[in-house]
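Need C-alpha cells for this chain, all 759 residues.
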Amino acid sequence: MTNNHSERQLERELEAPASFTSPEILYNDLIRSIYKYHPSDDITMVEKAYQIARDAHKDQKRKSGEPYIIHPLCVAIILADLELDKESIVAGILHDVVEDTVMTLDEITEVFGPEVALLVDGVTKLTQLSWSMDKVEIQAENLRKMFLAMAKDIRVILIKLADRLHNMRTLEFMKPEKQKEKARETMDIYAPIAHRLGISKIKVELDDLSLKYLKPEVYYDLAEKISLNKEARKAFVNDIVEEVRHHMADAEIASTVDGRVKHFFSIYKKMVKQDKTLDQIYDMFAVRIIVDSVKDCYGALGVIHELYKPIPGRFKDYIAMPKPNMYQSLHTTLIGSNGQPFEIQIRTYEMHRTAEYGIAAHWKYKESGSGQVAAGDEEAKLSWLRQILEWQRDMSDNKEFLSLIKSDLDLFSDNVYCFTPSGDVKALPSGSTPIDFAYAIHSAVGNKMVGARVNGKLVNIDYIIENGDRIEIITSQNSKGPSRDWLKLVKSTQAKNKINQWFKTELKEDNIVRGKDMIERYCKAKGINYPDLNKPEFMEKVMKRYAFKDWDSVLASIGHGGLKEGQVINKMLEARDKKLKREVTDANILDGLEDMTNKVPAAKKSKSGIVVRGIHDVAVRFSRCCSPVPGDEIVGFVTRGRGVSIHRTDCINIINLQESERVRLIDAEWQQAESAENKERYSTEIQIYANNRIGMFVDISKVFTERQIDITSMNVRTSKQGKATIIMTFDIHGKEELTRLTDKLRQIEGILDIERTAG
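Here are the C-alpha cells for all 759 residues:
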C-alpha cells in the first residue's frame, strides 16, 4: 500500500448527502464512489438494480416527503464507501423491494442470481408473523432470521448496518415514541454489532445518533459545552500535532499526524462509568500517528515518551494483544507542556483501515461472489456470531434469547485480558471470575473445575480477574459439576449459557422420571386412563406442537417445569377425540339407527350448565371456595348427600385432597362454550391488592358500572403501611368477561395485583 493512497484513505468519511438531494444526483454519486475503488468494474448490474428499484418504489414517499428511492440509494452509497463488492451494492439498492413492493424474491433470483437474492432475503424483515406475538417476540424473530443469514453471508449485516445508519440519519421525521424505540434498538443491538465487527465509522455515528434521540438533553448539553472552548482546544491540539510532526521528521519516521475531539457518546460513556463531569474528563481529544510498519509504531512511541511525560498505568498495547474485534493500536496518555493531559494513538495504515472499516476491510470477495470467510484466522474473529447461533438452536424462548443478545452485546462492558498457562490471551468481560475463564477455554474444563490458581497462588472461585493475570484451572474427574450459585458469580453470557445447558442435559434423566410421574398423577386425579393416551400418534401431536424431537424431551421439560402436565394431556385428549370422530363409519350410524327406538331420550339441557360424565340428572352445586365460571377447567366432587360440588382444578381444597378422597373426583365440563349467547350469570370472587388513595373505590366501581356487573359483596382491609386488600364478589357470564374486567382494573392507578380466590 502506497503512502499517498493511505493518506487519501484516511481522509475519506462515510458520505452523508444533504437532505432532499435528487435521486439522479445520488445515483451519479454512487457510480463515482464505485469507480474510486473499482475503476474497471462493469456497472450494468448496478444500473439495472437502480431502474428496477426506481420503478418498484415509484409511487412511494418517505416520512420526509422525499421519493422512497432516495433511501436505498443512500444505503448503497454507504456500502460503496465501505468498498464492498457490487453484489452487496445491488442488494443495498433492492433491500426494500420484497418487503414494501409487489416484487418477489423469485424475480430477484431470476434477474440477479441466488447470491443477491440471499442478501436481500437476509435483510428483509419477517412479515408473516402471528398477531398474538408481542413487539419483543417479533423483534427477536427478526433478529434470529438476520443472525442465521449472517452466518451464511456476513454481507447481510453490513447491508443492515448501512440501512439502519441512513434510517437514523433521517429519524427526525418519525414520531417521538418511534424515534426512541428505533434509537433504543440501535444502541442495544446494531451499534454493538458494528463494534464487534470493528466498523468504527458506522459504530460511532450510530452511537451519537442514538444518544441524540434517547437523551437529547445530554446530547445538546455536550454539544454546547464542547463548542464553548472549541477554539482554545483546537489551538492546543494543533500545537501538539505540529510538535509531533516535527519530531517524527527528525527521527526519520514517515508518518501522518492528525488530531480530533472524541465522539459525544464515548465522552458520555466515560462520564457515566467514572461518575465525572465534563470538566473532569481529561482525554477528550486524541492525536493519531499513522506510520508504515509495526516497527515504526514502537519507534514513534519511544519518540513520544521522550517528548512528553506519560501518565503511569495509562499505556495500552493493542498491537501485541488485539481487541476481539481485530482493533490494533498503541494508546498512551501524556501530560502536555501546559499540564493538560491528552491521548496519543499510534498505528499502521493497515491497522487504521481495520479500525475504521473492521470486517469490511478484511473480507475478500471473489468476483463470482462468496461471502464466506477468507482463509486465515478471520473465523476466530466471529466466534461471538457462532455463540449467538448456538443460542438460537438451544433456545425456544424469544424473550430470553433477546435479553441474552443484549447482555452479550452490552456496549458498556469493557474487557479484561488474561493469560492461559501456555501464554494464550483470553479477553473476558470486566468483573469476570476464574469460572468465566474456565468456560472460555472449554465447557468440559468449566464443568470439571474444582479450583484455580492466579499467578501461581490459589484463589477463591469468586476472585475478580485483573489485566495481565496468568490463570490455571484445577479440574477433577470426581467433580459433581457446576453449582447453581455459579450463575450469580459469572459475568460472561457464554459461561451462564453453558452452566444452564449442563443442568438441562445432566439432570435430564431425573427430569424424565419426575415428568413421567407427574403426568401419571395428573391423569389419576382427573380420572383419565393414561394408557389410552400413551400412544405414538398422540405423542406426535404434542411433540409437533411444542417443537420437541422425542418424547423423553417432553417428559424432561415437564420435570424441570418448562411444560405443564395439563397442557400435554389436553393436547393428547384433543388428538384422541379427533381420531374417534373420524372413526365413526356408515355401519356405526346404521347400527345406531336400529337402536334408536330402544334408547332413552336425550338429556334435557342441564339447569346448572354442567355435564357430569356418567351421571344423568344429578344435583349440582358450585363450591364457594373457588367460585368457578364458564371457561374455567373444572372437576366434580361427589359429596355425601348433597350431589356433586363443582370446583376449579386449581382450587386449594382439590389440590390438597387426601389420596383416599380422590376416588370421589369425577369429570365435569361446561355444557355450552363460553359465548355471547350465554345468558346465565355465575358468582365469582377476586382479591385486589392496592396502594390506598382517595378516589380508589370510585375508580373501581366505575369499571363495574360501565360493564353493568352487579357487585354482591365487598370487604376492605387497610394495613398500617397504606396497603389495601379488597375482596369483591360479583356475578359474571364467564372467564373471558372476567379476564377483560381484571385487565381494565389493572390499569387503575395504585393497583398492585389482582388474583382469584382459589379456596
